[in-house]
Design brief:
Layout lengths: L1 H9 L10 E5 L2 E8 L2 E8 L2 E8 L7 E4 L6 H5 L3 H5 L4 E4 L16 H14 L5 E6 L1 H12 L4 E7 L10 H9 L7 H10 L3 H16 L6 H5 L4 E9 L4 H10 L3 E9 L16 H14 L4
Helix pairs in contact: 1-6, 4-5
Length: about 300
């Protein structure tokens, strides 16, 4: 049971360093470096040095990936990113204080992180994107769809709740009891692999924990205001209650629901919760691609 609780916290903590030649975009500094089959970059955004990666095709509607709390791009999306990139441009972003993105002397909030995402898209001259957020990243993605509607064509809202009562009570109890010492080791290792500074790991943990301790319900009126076609995605043994996911499909005007027989992150092959080889990543990508390729409603 304790291991299961740690897995809950891992995915909601909520919840090598790249260098390169400098460029200048709209007066803001951007540095780039090849990474894997794509390109890694930094951009000065709203007082932070934001790390992001660009993969896939040069043309088409970009898919923006927003990782879970306490995580990095690799932790959440390493199993699915290559498959998405085979079909479209992909931009994967690390949130304030996470992984390779620097911090600022302000709390981490879903709303401010949404502003960071919007600022990066505008810096890159992207007028419209699809946004896929997982867990805390889904809460950020929703705020982009609420606050920066013109930027979002389609939204994938995966394994997150808009209200405290939309998640199982076990989640909130464990967050209250959480310490850096019981943060899952795979998350610690992933952070230190790309940012080998234990103090920055501690700060990230404390800011993520504080954000979730002060989680505020998203007003139903804001949820109803989302104009983007939206896919609500959860596992049947997720931290999110199935009835909450159903309720969201009734609040968001152009929404669909996908419930997979999986736990939180299993369907992505998420590095913390998935310990065995599975076909879920390929299946999940295929289902999300079907949604993204549907004609606009």
């Amino acid at each position: 049971m304790r291991k299961k609780i740690q897995e809950y916290f891992a995915v909601v903590l909520l919840l090598g360093l790249v260098s390169g030649s400098a460029a200048n975009v709209n007066g803001q500094s951007v540095s780039r470096q090849a990474v894997g089959a794509g390109r890694a970059a930094y951009a000065d955004i709203n007082g932070i040095r934001m790390y992001y990666e660009v993969h896939g095709k040069a043309k088409g509607i970009p898919l923006v990936l927003l990782h879970g709390g306490g995580s990095t791009i690799d932790v959440t999306f390493s199993k699915v990113l290559p498959a998405f990139a085979a079909n479209r441009p992909v931009i994967a972003i690390e949130e304030q204080g996470h992984g390779r993105t620097s911090n600022r002397d302000k709390p981490v909030r879903f709303e401010s992180s949404a502003d960071d995402v919007a600022a990066l898209l505008k810096l890159l001259k992207i007028e419209k994107a699809d946004i896929f957020g997982f867990s805390n990243g889904a809460s950020v993605a929703m705020q982009v769809a609420i606050k920066h509607r013109s930027l979002v064509r389609k939204l994938v809202f995966a394994s997150a709740a808009t209200r405290r009562d939309g998640a199982h009570p076990l989640l909130w109890r464990f967050i209250e009891e959480s310490t850096l010492s019981n943060m899952p080791q795979p998350l610690k290792d992933a952070f230190l692999k790309v940012n080998p500074d234990p103090e920055k790991l501690r700060v990230m943990f404390e800011k993520d924990r504080e954000r979730m301790l002060n989680f505020k319900d998203v007003p139903d009126a804001d949820v109803k205001s989302i104009q983007a076609s939206t896919l609500i995605l959860i596992g049947d043994k997720d931290i999110v209650k199935p009835e909450h996911a159903v309720e969201l499909t009734r609040l968001i005007p152009k929404s669909r629901l996908l419930i997979l027989p999986a736990g939180h992150g299993d369907y992505l092959g998420e590095a913390v919760t998935t310990t065995r080889k599975t076909n879920y990543p390929e299946l999940t990508v295929g289902l999300i691609e079907e949604f993204l390729n549907l004609p606009p409603e």
